[in-house]
Task: structure prediction
Amino acid sequence: MTTKKFKPRVFSGMQATGNLHLGNYLGALKRWVEMQATHECLYCIVDMHAITTWQDPKELRESIRSVTAAYVAAGLDPSKSAIFNQSQVPEHAELAWVLNCVARLGWLNRMTQFKEKAGKDRENASVGLYDYPILMAADILAYHATHVPVGDDQKQHLELTRDIAQKFNNDYAESMRALGFEDGFFPLPEPVIEGPATRVMSLRDGTKKMSKSDASDLSRINMIDDADTIAKKIQKAKTDPEPLPTEEAGLNNRPEADNLVGIYAALADASKGKVLQEFGGGQFSTFKKALAEIAVTKIGPVNSEMRRLLADPEEIDRILGEGARRAREIAAPIMSDVKDIVGFLRTS
Ligand code: TYM
Result:
């Protein structure tokens, strides 16, 4: 089957749990902002994914608003991009059910994120946590999204999304043809995993991903940290005793150095090589001062704009409502086609 040309469309999302950190910002959000200039974009706050582990309802509401504020403060423009929370667009859950019936159990059993998140007590994990990647595939495919900018940790989920899209296109090829969808119904979405910070590591251990679930707050820079806290965390960041290398190859087997240089490069919109041209051969103490300075300069304004937006929750809710309305305009007809393709009868 030849694949038809789909209109380029970007979709991505973040979980509404707790605070965003520098990994979320550099690995995803900052790049989402850039893609607005060239693509039609939908950016979601995935509250249905959030409840795959229990969330206090009051805190969940606050988290949804806080992530929305971070999106807008970082530069997502609600007049350009649809910004919305997942649960306000019922097509995500509806499509997820159909895709549940397309995906194979063996595929889900390979998902490393489930293994990490469920840990040893797997029997006690929610069914939702196991099914999480299917809902993620539905998020993307409900819009016929063609590009998905994410950090490196989402790569496996995107491969699964492509497998599900492909299997749906094959399983229902005849029905699709009969209904006039000649060249495949779902696009196979491209992961966009680019730049020097696709995997930002913990400041305490360069072999562990920066994550909101790490017990040590010193391991991450939160988007709501103030300037002093950011500077303190960078100053305390783990390093090794060697000076910085002058070339990128010298970062091999030096995970902490590699991470800090990557963070600097992403904040400065430069390559790691460029950063090392400036700081290579020097001590970490000098480099850390410069890193703290650029981190505060770049994150500080996002931080204060976030606080300003959060003071007006009604405006945030308005943005989410408008975003959901626009998202539904795209997802509803696609879901109707899915129902026709699989053979559901629609009588009204
Ligand atoms: P989540 O909420 O864990 O993370 C949101 C985004 O931040 C990226 N990220 C990182 N990037 C670099 N370094 C890190 N240390 C780091 N930590 C997180 C993630 O890769 C992600 O891009 N399953 C997704 C949410 C989701 C989604 C979607 C994404 C649901 N549906 C559809 C894309 C398309 C997640 O849990 O991301």
Observations:
- DSSP finds 14 helices and five strands in the chain.
